[in-house]
Amino acid sequence: MKNIFLFAEHLRGRVTLESLSLRTAALEWKDQYPQASVRWVLCGDSVFPVARDLAEGSGLDVIFFDHPSLKFGNPEAHAAALSSWLEPLDSWAFLLPQSSLCLAMAPALSLRLGVPYLSGAVRCLFDEGEIFFVRESLFGKRTERWRPVSHKRILVAMIRQGSFVGFKGGGPPGRVLMAPADPGPLRTHTVRQEVASGRETGLSRAAVVVAAGRGIGDEGTLASLRELLAFLEGAALGASRPVCDRGWLPPEHQVGITGQTVSPRLYLALGISGAVQHLAGMQDSQIIVAVNQDPEAPIFRIAHYGIVQDLKVFLPALLQCLRDRRGTRGGTPGVDETGATR
Ligand SMILES: Cc1cc2nc3c(=O)[nH]c(=O)nc-3n(C[C@H](O)[C@H](O)[C@H](O)COP(=O)(O)OP(=O)(O)OC[C@H]3O[C@@H](n4cnc5c(N)ncnc54)[C@H](O)[C@@H]3O)c2cc1C
Fold first, then answer.
1. Domain 208-329 sits in CATH 3.40.50.2000
2. What is the location of CATH 3.40.50.1220 in the chain?
3. Dihedral of CA 87/93/97/98: which sign?
4. Whose CA is nearest to atom 38 of ligand 1?
5. Are strands 153-158 and 117-127 parallel, antiparallel or unpaired?
6. 245 lines ligand 1 (CB under 6 A)
7. Would you identify the CATH topology of the domain 3-179?
8. Whether the Cβ atoms of residue 157 and residue 102 lie closer than 8 Å to each other
9. Staple 125 to which of 42, 82, 132, 264, CB 3.0 to 4.6 Å?
10. What is the ipTM of this complex?
11. What is the DSSP letter of 303?
12. Which of 278, 296, 313 to mutate to test the pocket of ligand 1 (most atoms within 8 A of CB)?
């Protein structure tokens, strides 16, 4: 393996956490292939400043593709530009974050290059010279091992798993290298990109996130969660996808790969099974406390504290305990209209 490329997706001038975490995987690859060079690949329009910051922050070289058609994350334009550049190279692994752009772009890239593509990998393993990718299904209850048919060209989208290993500061900056970026004629054009306004949930700045999963049973339980929030300073309400899909909470409360990424001091997961798509958005929380009636729930694998109990028993008991304490100590907790505590 001569080259390990990491796709650096960026939003509003900053490389996403999901992309940065690929570096963790790349370090393991580097152990296996000490001769290989690890480099970022970054696409966009007028993205030199982003590429430069990434090279300085990571100490890795950044190859960047600059073209107006790459401005708004057009998957076809990305696949076209990257495939003409990758085509003559014969020994590489290309790791991508499992984002909407990459999930649309990677299959097109795979077809253009005739290279097999795997999505949803949570980690890679090396066993006696063989590379395996691990995928989880059935909410983490089943693990699959995938082996690429060839080690020459590997295209994999990875879900962030395990803690993000930050950049080691102090090293020399990487180089910024410009690649030819004309994707040629395209059938699709992205005209505009709008950032959803969404209501302020307070999630990104919350010190405590109380997260509701399908296990809360029904929308009515949210009243208890809001009461709980009021007792916790700097707390906000998060949710798993089924809770938002059912309309119990608006989508901006969703935590996970297609929702928000949070890293509070305390993450309280209530009735959440721990699917990888959810974990991707909260696994960097400092302390994770999970309450679930199923002792085998995957969330317990990453929780620092696990409580195996029915929420219908746990929540009233916890609230009563907090009310009793308030009665002893005095003071009135408050919660604002966004669900965040004052
Ligand atoms: C492309 C894609 C993107 C996705 N993106 C996201 C995302 O961003 N965020 C996200 O959250 N999901 C996402 N998902 C969905 C994800 O795969 C899971 O389906 C989802 O996270 C499960 O939510 P849950 O844990 O609330 O529900 P479930 O998996 O149904 O788990 C409910 C849990 O509650 C427990 N429970 C039930 N009743 C009680 C009770 N009375 N007391 C205590 N515990 C109880 C159960 O034991 C169970 O473990 C995505 C899926 C796909 C395919």
1. no
2. 208-329
3. positive
4. 215
5. parallel
6. no
7. Rossmann fold (3.40.50)
8. yes
9. 132
10. 0.99
11. -
12. 278
